[in-house]
Amino acid sequence: MKRMSLYRLFGPIEVRRDGQPVPLGGPKQRAVLAVLLLAAPRVVSIDRLADATWGDEHPPSMLSSLHAHISNLRRLLRDDANATSPIVRRNPGYLADVPAADIDLRLFERDCEQAQSAADAGDWRRAVQAADRAAA
Fold this sequence. Notes:
By secondary structure, the chain is an alpha+beta fold. It has helices at residues 27-39, 46-54, 62-77, 104-120, 124-135; strands spanning 5-8, 14-17, 20-21, 44-45, 87-90, 93-96. It folds into 2 domains: 5-100, Orthogonal Bundle (Arc Repressor Mutant, subunit A), CATH 1.10.10; 104-135.
């Protein structure tokens, strides 16, 4: 049975699986995850991941550290030991293969668009409902 995951970008970066927090490691590993989720489902280049994680001053060990963060995240985000990870290698980098409905930011954007669309159509009840969902 597939386990349910929610990826939270509002507030502290967090992943919840079946309602329980997944331990994500330190700030650099969380930064890598955040960049991948913000771009999902597009590929993020190694250079972009490095810039987002270390800024303009990359340490000499940047590539091996980045690959270690990715490897750790892939292991942590598997549903079980036999499942594939939602973090996938695609040239020239990686992508988060996560449904938009599992990312809080994408749900917020969808609800805001629905609220705006309903307001533009003069359907205030539907606009308020969508805005309430977005605010929640």
